[in-house]
Amino acid sequence: MARSIYFFGAGQADGDAQQKDLLGGKGAGLAEMTRLGIPVPPGFTVTTEVCNAYYAAGKVLPAGVEDEIKAAIGRLESLLDARFGSPEAPLLVSVRSGARASMPGMMDTILNLGMNDEIAAGLARRTGSERFALDAYRRFILTYSDIVLGVARDRFEEALGRARRDAAARLGVDATRLNSAELERKVPDSLLDPASLAALIQRQKEIVVGATGSPFPDDPRAQLGGAIRAVFDSWNNHRAQVYRKMHDIPEAWGTACNIQAMVFGNLGDDSGTGVAFTRDPSTGERRFYGEWLPNAQGEDVVAGVRTPHPLSRSGSGGGATSGGGATSDGADDASSLEARMPEAYAQLVAVQARLEQHFRDMQDLEFTIQRGELFLLQCRTGKRTGRAAVRIAVEMAREGLISQREAILRVDPGAIDQLLHPSIDEGAPKRLLARGLPASPGAATGQVVFSADEAERRAGQGKAVILVRSETSPEDIHGMKAARGVLTARGGMTSHAAVVARGMGKSCVAGCSAISVSQGQMAVTIYDDHGHATGSITVKAGDLITLDGGTGRVYLGAVPTVPAALSGEFAELMGWADAVRRLRVRSNADTPHDARTARNFGAEGIGLCRTEHMFFDEERIQAVREMILADGEAGRRRALAKLLPFQRGDFLGVFREMAGLPVTIRLLDPPLHEFLPQDEAQLEQLSQAVEISAKELRRKSQELAEYNPMLGHRGCRLAITSPEIYEMQARAILEAACEVAAAGIEVEPEIMIPLSMTRRELAITRALVERVAEQVFAEKGRRVDVRFGTMIELPRAAIMAGELAEEAEFFSFGTNDLTQTTLGISRDDAGRFLGAYVEAGIFAKDPFQSLDVPGVGALVELARDRGRAARPGLKLGICGEHGGDPSSIAFFERAGLDYVSCSPFRVPVARLAAAQAALTAESARGPRATD
Ligand code: ADP
Ligand code: MG
Ligand code: MG
């Protein structure tokens, strides 16, 4: 192994920003900032290779690493003129994990390491603040015990409560009737006096002995070794695993470990700590944005224990919430960093501008001010909402910071999904419950739940839930994932809840101080317009609420929503994407309404119009059932005649919406049994309507039931036994097409045969369609161009594609069925075991969501080659779920298909993904001469 340790400090660093793989994002960022001459406390990074070697050796640090660490500590000591383990000039460090990809809150950080009783006393002398030194010490014991010794944090709760009560008594505050949250508000950490802190430290140590059987480690070197091991161990803790799985982060990456000299934001009112974004992570607006807390350390801001203040005065374009949250009034201007520490603020503004220019992307920064002196502790590419991602990419391209191509590649297609979803209908009647911070946009309605486990459980039952917590912590990740939205009582725009929700694209309202959560219910204080409390109401688990993450408002009940309004930047980005993509994007749409939505989202045609949904309409289902139950062809034709005008009307509407664009209509596909009544009451009703006895109906229904309907009498097999169904459908399509054409509207109907596997099936159905077409054209006195094609959904169809292409003018890969039939896995039954398959790494992703490229993809390519060999210019499309999945779209681009078709809301996602696929394919073919 090469060197295990990379040092940074005093303007020089062994590593740089390119070495994220080796140093983790945090380590690489610290090295790069140091090189840029930005003030960063010195330190060093133990590489991810060491982490991997540690695991490979069965959790043992490789030989020599400890000596290297010792040497690096020595360098720190001489740089800072302090000594690790010495009470005279104590050097304290933080031990911070940092993987290649940022995993906020996933890994554990230990602050103030290198303490014992003597060192704490020395620190008190050196800083002139006993309170500060003891506070740092007791925090260190708490985190170290939790993370390294496995003594959970809450075991110290009671001791802390006692310290608060001690302090309250000294302050003359009556604490007897306060619950723990109220007590904390009355006696915050900053009011704990040295005597209470000293007693607290004693108690904490006793708790550790009680829990572990050994005293708290006094030796700073032992502390350091334990902490480094714990950082490596945390790479495999439960919440890190959950996060990795959600974000496709390989286990093999490992984490780096950063050891860095401490700076203190809790040394008094001329100190503080905060986080900043170079642009607004929620809206993308170009303004310096962030939050800070005076006299506070490290995680106080993210932990949401105190609600932080804005960095900038609102008048100067800063402020936490321009949308009218809890923190945009004049009081916040006064508590802003800009007002309180103008010099440090000005320096921070200069640093952030420099970092954004340097990294050419929006940065997320952590800083600490120690007695007026600014230090940067972290910089990384900032997480952002989909809306912000679009705005930032487009504006940076306009500013010339990045190219248009980079802008296209910058935006995660999955993330723009959230832009396309509805927001609160401002006009609808609604009851405002409370207001918090607009932490992550989007409207969400659901039942209130108070724990992550409960969220997961109810969501598993198909319920929409809103997770309500005082504040969230990494342990809540699974619940946040399951919930539609998250509401917290405490914490700012950069609290855990806010950051994680934005990453997930979930609605989140944070820091909603009007609510207080306890014992399975939430009390909401109601305020009048002047901000006076007028009463309160109680919301229980299971009650419905609606969040508006864009404004921070919380409503009682379900509030109606309105469709997304797409911004100018969004349209601009889409325009750039459309200019570079090769794949066409169509939509799956069964109704005129869906067709209009699809067209508004930029669909270039309909790739799949399913006709069976049209049959379920109340007025028609009766005729459908009559048709199914009829004994002979004559009876069937009578029933079909009733359906004809309905179907024609459907197609008329769709053709009008899609004027000038192709519309692929799939003839009837599902097994007929699906249309029969599913329960006794419906059966009785049907029996009366069709004048067949219920008994007879039951017999017929049983007759039609199949053991394996997916592989049964469905698709074009229906037309082989009862051609009159497809005849009626073809007639409805062609009559509608002629009618629309007569009105001067351009139509491009494409008739698609499902589930074919032989040339003969296509020859028969094609002859049928052609015969009907000639009849209709003769009757209407006009002809329209109509294309005939088939779906490819069976392995045999893919294999026989050469023959099928002689009858079909186009193929559309029905990748849902093609996946089912190729894998031999029923989509409806896969839920029971597919999760385990993904878990075991048998499939990287659910093959019904993300195409199985080596298997199903190979059949797609085979069918493409054989089909095009038989019919040059054969049009190829895909219309399964995979048509809206970015990684599948990348494959369809490589495979040279003509179009993908996906659900209307996915159309913009597919347009962007197709553009990215085209750009990636292009750069894979070779470097461009110019950009
Ligand atoms: P995370 O990855 O959860 O953000 P970090 O390692 O960044 O964890 O640290 C948690 C908090 O502690 C951050 O607010 C960070 O700025 C602060 N911190 C870390 N190291 C130091 C240090 N050496 N001096 C002061 N604050 C620190
Ligand atoms: Mg952390
Ligand atoms: Mg951090």
Question: Secondary-structure blueprint of this entry?
Answer:
Blueprint: E1 5-9, E2 12-13, H1 20-35, E3 43-46, H2 48-56, H3 65-80, E4 93-99, E5 109-113, H4 117-127, H5 130-147, H6 157-171, H7 180-186, H8 194-212, H9 220-234, H10 238-246, E6 255-261, E7 272-277, E8 289-294, H11 300-303, E9 309-310, H12 330-335, H13 337-340, H14 342-359, E10 363-370, E11 373-381, H15 386-399, H16 404-410, H17 413-416, E12 423-424, E13 431-435, E14 437-440, E15 443-449, H18 452-460, E16 465-469, H19 477-482, E17 485-488, H20 496-504, E18 507-510, E19 515-518, E20 521-527, E21 533-540, E22 544-548, E23 553-556, E24 561-562, H21 568-580, E25 584-588, H22 592-600, E26 606-610, H23 612-615, H24 618-629, H25 633-657, E27 662-666, H26 680-690, H27 694-704, H28 716-721, H29 723-742, E28 748-753, H30 759-780, E29 787-792, H31 795-799, H32 801-807, E30 810-813, H33 815-823, H34 834-839, H35 853-870, E31 875-878, H36 886-894, E32 899-902, H37 907-925
Parallel strand pairs: 15-16, 16-17, 17-18, 25-26, 25-32, 26-27, 27-28, 28-29, 29-30, 30-31, 31-32
Antiparallel strand pairs: 1-2, 1-3, 3-6, 4-5, 4-6, 7-8, 7-10, 8-9, 10-11, 12-24, 13-23, 14-18, 15-22, 19-20, 20-21, 22-23
Helix pairs in contact: 4-5, 5-8, 6-7, 6-8, 15-16, 15-21, 16-21, 21-37, 22-25, 24-25, 25-29, 29-30, 30-32, 32-35, 36-37
Bound molecules: adenosine-5'-diphosphate and magnesium ion (2 copies).
